[in-house]
Design goal:
Layout lengths: L16 H4 L6 H28 L10 H17 L3 H10 L8 H8 L1
Helix pairs in contact: 2-3, 2-4
């Protein structure tokens, strides 16, 4: 997923929690859903960054290291400018892009 194309804000935004928890009816459940999605996004971003930085890894010292470091710095800056995973997850939740289910609630409905 290209996280640069998301319309999530890059800075912290104050949100109305009652509006966010309309789907679940429980603030804590909503926060847990968003937190789990944020952890997934964080893991994806970290693996992407690691893959890109691994391409520039060199195990010997030479003069070209300065140029490689510039490329590494540019990649790192790109990832630093991305919105935080919690902001991306919250935006996805608001847009209805996050699928979640609560097995305990489903079990209660069946009984």
């Amino acid at each position: 997923m290209d996280y640069r194309k998301t319309n999530a804000p890059t800075t912290t935004v104050t949100r109305d929690m009652m509006e966010l928890c309309e789907d679940t009816g429980n603030v804590y459940e909503t926060v847990a859903v968003i937190a789990k999605r944020a952890n997934q996004i964080s893991a994806e971003i970290k693996s992407d960054l690691s893959k890109k930085l691994a391409e520039f890894a060199s195990y010997n010292d030479n003069l070209e290291e300065v140029f490689e470091n510039r490329e590494q710095i540019e990649i790192s800056r790109y990832y630093e400018k991305l919105p935080k995973p919690t902001l991306i997850a919250t935006q996805e939740y608001k847009e209805g892009k996050v699928y979640y289910r609560n097995p305990a609630k489903e079990k209660e409905k069946l009984q």
